[in-house]
Amino acid sequence: MHYERSRKIEERFQKTIALIQDRRLNAGQLALELGVSNPTVHRIINELKRRGYSIRSVHEEHGWSYELNKKPN
User: Fold this and answer.
1) pLDDT of 15-45, one tens digit each?
2) Residue from 41, 39, 51 nearest 12 by CA
3) 2-70 — its CATH code?
4) What is the pLDDT of residue 61?
5) How far apart are CA 68 and CA 57, in angstroms?
6) Handedness of CA 52, 53, 54, 57 (dihedral sign)
7) Closest CA to 64 of 24, 23, 16, 15
8) C-alpha 20: how far from its chain's center?
9) How far apart are CA 63 and CA 32, in angstroms?
10) What is the pLDDT of residue 3?
11) Torsion region of 54: left, alpha or beta (phi above 0 gives left; psi -120 to 50 gives alpha)
12) What is the DSSP secondary-structure string of 30-61?
């Protein structure tokens, strides 16, 4: 059971990376794509940053979006 939960979390991390790799998405858009809440999106982004992903917040006309700058080495 624990393994299944961990696997789903890792899949969510990978999907987040794929989503913001080629386009900017805000927390609401990511939440819809991932099927999670906005606070969960923020936790995912923070964990990816902790793992070395260079993700920045970009201020756009209608709010903030996330953008992947580069993958960790």
Assistant:
1) 999 999 989 999 999 999 999 999 999 999 9
2) 41
3) 1.10.10.10
4) 85
5) 9
6) negative
7) 24
8) 7
9) 17
10) 84
11) beta
12) HHHHHTS-HHHHHHHHHHHHHTT-EEEEEEET
Q: Which residue has the tokens 């936790």?
A: 43
Phi first, then psi, for residue 22 (nearest 5°) are -110, -10
> Which two three-digit tokens encode residue 15?
């999907």
- Please list the helix, strand and coil fractions of the chain in percent, rounded to the nearest 5, in that order: 55, 20, 20
User: How far is the C-alpha of 67 from the C-alpha of 4, rounded, in Å?
Assistant: 29
- Alpha carbon distance 69, 20 (integer Å): 9
Say what the pTM is: 0.87
Tokens of 70: 């580069």
